[in-house]
Amino acid sequence: MDNVKKWNKWANAHTNYPLDFLRIALGIFLILKGASFITNTAYLDNILSSVSYFPGGMLTFHYIAAAHIMGGIMIAVGLLTRWAIIAQLPILFGAVIINFIGDFSLRNLMLSLVVLAVCLFFLFYGSGKHSADYFFKMQQ
């Protein structure tokens, strides 16, 4: 817990607007990706067909869509950012693995790896100084 407090102090001292923009862009990207999964269910079903032998396909579909939309909103606003990113990690690790097992698409693989790297960065960095987390922390 002390390490997290040290990381938060360092992040708040070294915050800048481009990182806040990157966090907001990540959140918006996840919202749009979740919305595209909901509006185009055949696309997500096609993606998940390579691992369809695992149980819980419908549960997985609903988890992916809900985690992307709700997590994207929370990441964009900066509210419980680390928890929202933790909810994204299984999806992103799964996306990387599916690109190796199923249809290999270099574009999708690179996109998954970039989003995973940005999420891992914000998992350690936190939401920054210009976020709802920081605002609520200062209200105490």
Automatic annotation (TrEMBL):
Transmembrane segments: 21-39, 59-77, 84-102, 108-128
Protein location: Cell membrane
InterPro entries: DoxX, DoxX-like_oxidoreductase
One GO cellular component, as annotated: plasma membrane
Membrane protein topology class: Multi-pass membrane protein
Keywords: Cell membrane, Membrane, Transmembrane, Transmembrane helix
Domain of life: Bacteria
Family: Belongs to the DoxX family.
The protein's name in its UniProt record: DoxX protein
Species name: Flavobacterium caeni
